Amino acid sequence: PAGTSLVWSSAPDFAQNRMPTTLGGVSVKINGKPAYVYFVSPDQVNVLAGLDTTTGTVNVEVTNGSQTSDPFPVLKNAASPSFFYFGATSYVAATHANGSLLGPTYMSAPGFPFTPAKPGETIVLYGSGFGITLGSLTEGAATQSGALPNLPAVTIGGKTATVAFAGVVAPGLYQFNVVVPALTSGEAAIQMRNGTLQTIGLIAIE
What we know:
With 206 residues, the chain is an all-beta fold. It is 0% helix and 47% strand. It has no helices and 20 strands. The chain has strands at residues 6-7, 22-23, 26-30, 33-34, 36-41, 44-48, 56-64, 67-68, 72-76, 82-83, 94-96, 101-102, 114-115, 122-128, 146-147, 153-156, 159-170, 173-179, 186-194, 197-205. Strands 10, 11, 14, 15, 16, 17, 18, 19 and 20 form a 9-stranded antiparallel sheet that branches. Strand 17 (159-170) and strand 18 form a beta hairpin. It starts with 5 loop residues before the first strand and ends with a strand.
């Protein structure tokens, strides 16, 4: 509906452990199959693609109430890895092992303190699009988990970082437990390579 924004956590489907394929009267099909609608606003729709393994050019259709868009082509890859970031920054969405926010202290807000990572610490990074995990994910289920078949290669500040875990922890959400190498304090570039694909960002070191 015009003027409103909705997130899938408000959908009744979650009571049945299902992700919604319709939110606020909006639905999306990718390659002819329903996608899972995460967010809807008057000018934006975010969806999670299903487990269809088709790659290449596929058609996307958006339906709002009784109106459906013309199909438009998009490129669908087996993986399209990307970190999540804090707001409009280049700092990767990350936490310390205890769940507290990881980043430069100047990003802190009341009730949301940020602190930098320390060398030797295991930190938790978040992203999306890293591909299918080992075992079977359940199409449409609101709870998903599984490890990636191969650990990605990670460098922080140009130094190799040990990856202790890499996998899905919720629908569309990937988690990476990474040990920070010995580095001096300051801003450090982080690079994660998954096969030939890579994603980059920044973390703060203290």
